[in-house]
Amino acid sequence: MRHTNRETLEHTGAVVHPLNAEQGVGMAIGKVSTHSPKDTLFWEGDPADDVFKVIRGTVCLYQLLPDGRRQVSRFCHAGDLIGLTATETYPYTADALTNLTTVRIRRSQLDTEMEGNPAVRGDVLRAIQDELNRTQNQLLLLGRKTAVERVASFLSAMSEQAMRDGGDGRAVELPMTRVDIADYLGLTHETVCRVLGQLKRDGVVGIPDPHRIELRQLDVLEDFAEGECGIGCAA
Amino acid sequence: MRHTNRETLEHTGAVVHPLNAEQGVGMAIGKVSTHSPKDTLFWEGDPADDVFKVIRGTVCLYQLLPDGRRQVSRFCHAGDLIGLTATETYPYTADALTNLTTVRIRRSQLDTEMEGNPAVRGDVLRAIQDELNRTQNQLLLLGRKTAVERVASFLSAMSEQAMRDGGDGRAVELPMTRVDIADYLGLTHETVCRVLGQLKRDGVVGIPDPHRIELRQLDVLEDFAEGECGIGCAA
DNA sequence: CGCCTGGTTGACCACTATCAAGGTTAGTGG
DNA sequence: CCACTAACCTTGATAGTGGTCAACCAGGCG
């Protein structure tokens, strides 16, 4: 078990009152579990018997190619549901990035609950539709955006997440490594570093330490993110 | 209205008995609509008041960036549901690629139907989960696969589609243009052409005409698709 | 105190995009 | 019937974005 700066981040950022995250799906039928950084909740290919609801901390979902190339499909934060799939087995691996609290819900029990409880049905349906929407936006990012646009999109999204967690959206804490970010954005960690360095030099962001980014010009980042400034726009 | 080879393709390929495609969602509550190639079913940003079920033909879903860069998120075939979203407006545009028959279902009516009919609920949930799964695989493709791997993945998927439609999976018909394919795979149409040309020269595929591909070595394509042969593997 | 993980930066290069030209086919109008 | 046009497709030459390889730094932990 590691107690590094990730531990700190987890406490200073993303404060979620347990009652909020525990409302809705899994409130009464799940079992609380905790995990340490780098723990794997489940592997791609494991029988998909459980659904997890994140209470506190961050989870990283990813797929691998045989030669080790990795694509992170999502970072999950408090309130997110993990493992909702129609397949027999999980289609991705789920790793804890921080100390993590989840509610683990038996798949079979969730199905029963959904059958009888329209509110749970609605929650689950909305969660999946929301995930699908975000994933489609990620397709646009991976298929058509430049490196700067990808990083700007990521920072904008993290800013929104920070606001949802009660922050002002100007200070963002990154529980994940540069490699995690790169594997999420379809880049290499070197490119992520270079783009962050460029944004810092341009005064768009401040980087007091590698896991803490100040968004000095959020409007500029959002323009970059939407491709508003032309391809390869450097300033 | 155009009557080009697309028209032909639509009749020779993907033969679906109407009763099959009309089973399940929308069977009783929808209204049959027809569209011609290049018709737009709806634009990104339109109020998401209808869900469409494809009965016959192919639909192309895509998002655009302000400068015109396009990402195709999905090609829809007989049986697919289009427009299931939790958002107020459609998050993508839907264009007909061929002559098209759909069942149009009022969103409000589908919601009512789902409330009272567990079978419809199950169909819709499974449809969305299936779409999410495919989309996540597409993330891996766009984020981490090479041009050859992308094209091979696409051809493999089209082969599976052809088998679902009753073919042997060795002959694939492509109702979409090279630009559509490129915008789906995150490439340019020139790169798609070059990769297809290379596969043809290597004897992996035959291309009797631009919209008809013979998959001569499906096993090789599938190995390429999964990245089994190393990056940049040319033979 | 030294190792190991993660981060940063530089030099170089390759994959794929861009730019350009020419070919093919279907539909159109003389 | 046959040029003419407009998409669409294909291939070549060149260039650029981001990848690869490498070196070095910083911090945490054994």
Map the helices and strands.
Two copies of one chain form a homodimer.
Chain A: H1 5-12, H2 18-22, E1 31-35, E2 40-42, E3 50-56, E4 59-64, E5 70-76, E6 81-82, E7 93-96, E8 100-106, H3 107-116, H4 118-144, H5 147-164, E9 171-173, H6 178-185, H7 189-201, E10 205-209, E11 212-215, H8 218-225
Antiparallel strand pairs in A: 1-8, 2-7, 3-6, 3-8, 4-5, 4-7, 9-11, 10-11
The structure holds a DNA duplex (30 and 30 nucleotides).
Radius of gyration of chain A: 18 Å
Shape of chain A: globular
Oligomeric grouping of the chains: homodimer
The largest inter-chain interface, given as chain pair and residues per side, is:
A-B, 44 and 44 residues
The count of strands of chain A amounts to 11
Query: How do the helices and strands follow one another from N- to C-terminus of chain A?
Result: HHEEEEEEEEHHHEHHEEH
Give descriptors for this structure.
homodimer, globular, 8 helices, alpha+beta, disordered N terminus, four-stranded antiparallel beta sheet, DNA-binding, disordered C terminus
